[in-house]
Structures are given as C-alpha cells and as structure tokens.
Amino acid sequence: MKEIYLDNAATTPISQSVYEEMMDKYKNVYGNASTLYGLGREAHTLMENSREVIAKSINADVDDIIFTSGGTEGDNTAIVQSALARQSLGKHIITTAIEHEAVLKPLEYLEGLGFEVTYLPVDEHGNMSIDDFKAALRDDTILVTIMSGNNEVGTVMPIHEIGEILADHQAWFHTDAVQAYGLKDIDVQHDHIDLLSTSAHKINGPKMIGFLYKRNGINFTSFVKGGDQETKRRAGTENVPAIAGFARAVADITPEVKQERQAKYFEFKQYLVEQLTARGIDFEINGELNPDGLNHVFNIWLKDISTYVMQTNLDLAGIAVSGGSACTAGSIEPSHVLTAMFGEDSPRISESIRISFGIENTKEDLDRLVDAIDKTVQRLKRKEA
Fold this sequence. Notes:
Its cofactor is pyridoxal 5'-phosphate. Keywords: Iron, Iron-sulfur, Metal-binding, Pyridoxal phosphate, Transferase. This is Cysteine desulfurase. By secondary structure, the protein is of the alpha/beta class. It folds into two domains: 4-12 and 255-384, Aspartate Aminotransferase, domain 1, CATH 3.90.1150; 16-252, Aspartate Aminotransferase, domain 2 (3-Layer(aba) Sandwich), CATH 3.40.640. The chain is 41% helix and 16% strand. The protein is built from twelve helices and 15 strands. The strands form four sheets. A seven-stranded mixed sheet has the order 2-8-7-6-5-3-4, sandwiched between helices. It has a four-stranded antiparallel sheet with strand order 9-10-15-12, covered by helices on one side. It has a two-stranded parallel sheet with strand order 1-11. Strand 13 (326-328) and strand 14 form a beta hairpin. Helix 2 runs parallel beside helix 8 (240-252). The radius of gyration is 22 Å and the shape is globular. The two termini are 31 Å apart. Residues 325-330 have low confidence and may be disordered.
C-alpha cells in the first residue's frame, strides 16, 4: 500500500534536482569555504553564487543574506539579538498570539529578562487587526515580529501594511517567513522588512539549512560565537552542499511554478470540501477557504472525533497528517493557534487535523484520505449505536 504524505507544512521530501545537486557537491566540492587554496575558493564561489540566487528571491542585497541552520536559529537570532542590542531605546516588543514556538519561546526568554511583550489577538479566521497593531505600537517599541503566514491554519498576515506603518518608527520589523517562502511573493524592500527568517526543508530542500535576511544597517552581535564565517555574523563552517541544495530548491520555484502550486493546492482544498460534504461528514474549516492564503495548509474540525483517534486511524491507513495539537513528551497539548482563534473551551482544539499538501500529492491521494476519514467516522458511529 502506497504511503500518502500530507504533512508538508511540517517538512517536505527533498526534490530530485536538489538531491542530485547536493550529491554532486558532497563528492566534488568538499573544501572549507574559509580557506584560501583552490578547493576552498571553489566552495566559497559556490556559496556566494547560491547566496545571490537566494537574495534575488526576496529582492534583497546579496550581502544581507546570512546562512543559518534553519528557521528556529533565524527566529532566535533576529529576536533575541535585536532586543539585547536595542534595550537602551525601550523594552517593548509586539507579536501575535499565533506565532510559531520558535518565536514565542525566545520572547518568553526575553520576558524573563524584563522585556514587555504585547501578544496581539486574532479573530476566528486567524486574522490580526491593523487597528489593534496601531493601538499597541508605542514610542518604546523596539521590535515587531509577526509571521508572514501561519503554519497551522494558513492565514496570511498583513506584512506590507505593518511594514509601511513601521517605516518611520524606531522598531525593527522581523517576519518568520518559514511557511510563506516559496508560495507567496516576498519583497523585503517593498514591504519594509528589516529581518526575515526561513528554512530550506519547507520547499523541498535539505534540513538544517536556512537563511536570515538582515537589512544593511541592522546591527547586532553574532548569536553563534566562534569563527568569523558569514563576515563575522554567524560562526561555524558553512554547509556548502546544503547551501547549494537550498539555492537549487529556490531556483526551481520560478514565479510561474509558485503560481501553479498555489492554484493547485487551492483546488485540492475545494475538492476536499466537496468530497467530505458529499460523504455527509460533519466538519468545519479552521481558518478560511481563501485563495490568497497559504493554500498548502488545510485545517479542519471533525466534530466529535478526537484528534488522536483520527490521526491514529489515518496512520494505520498509511496516511500522514498532523494533529491540530502538538505532541510533546508523549502527551497531547492543545494547539495555541486554535486556542487563540476559538478559545480554550472550544472542542475544535482537540478535534482538528491539519492536512498540508506538497508537490508530490495528487487527487488520488485525497480520495484515499476521504475514504479513510469516512471509514473512521462510520466505525465510530457504529460503536456509539
């Protein structure tokens, strides 16, 4: 039985072109990019060519791209180092209640150091209010960190509007673009973004490689201490084959490909709504059926069926989806995203699953998913009867 992978918001399978690029570089370009002899210079040139490809993808200056180990390091670096560098100007930070843990945990750390964090609420579709943001912004606000798109429900945040408001404010603007990068157009100049973090494994690239965009003039000390790599901005020997693989993944996502994928994934969402409705399955969408959202993420409430039960039954059927909850140390904890959207007493937070599409998925995969959900619902109904 073919395994069906529908958890692409968690990670994506590496593409064939990326695999081939990396295998070639592992074998043939193994020099340390910081050395001066031929093999090192070859590795350095490859790394800088990759940096140029990645910078172009967000309309950034090539010197403003710092390679990291991924989104978590990028988020931590941008948030913690910005706050520590700017605390003489104020200690107030603004974010939303539905950020990824890679943003929330550093903010929690900073609160322990005396910083004040405003967590903007969201509505039942996961949307934040610009009016709430304006009301929260203060003279002593030094950092705003708001994700480009949400990883659980696919809501896209008003990044351009936020950037314009902050253009004449002292606060630096950071966005976690891990889910949006590769699916939504991002222009750091047009959107007045100062700091942006992302990760290759979300776009069919390798794990443990990402980048942090840091606008020229945004200054703080290196988060990772050690050597002088990345022009003294991030210590550690660069993973050149992974960097090359990341650049290959980025180059594969042309504007036309990006548009095609968004359209395909929105069709998948519509198709699932039609098929689940036709089967008489009692469900509701968490978020919106909005073509302008992150269309690879589809979160649904399956009424009266626990996340654990549905996820387990789908796993037994050879289908991988994510729960609407995060599994931590063997226990199911409520999703902070769904809790922020619907309240801690809502049954949605323990009865929802996240389905997320990728480049290898087909409508036949969705048919298998619908069949498996339907069989699980019918079996549970018979048990209750």
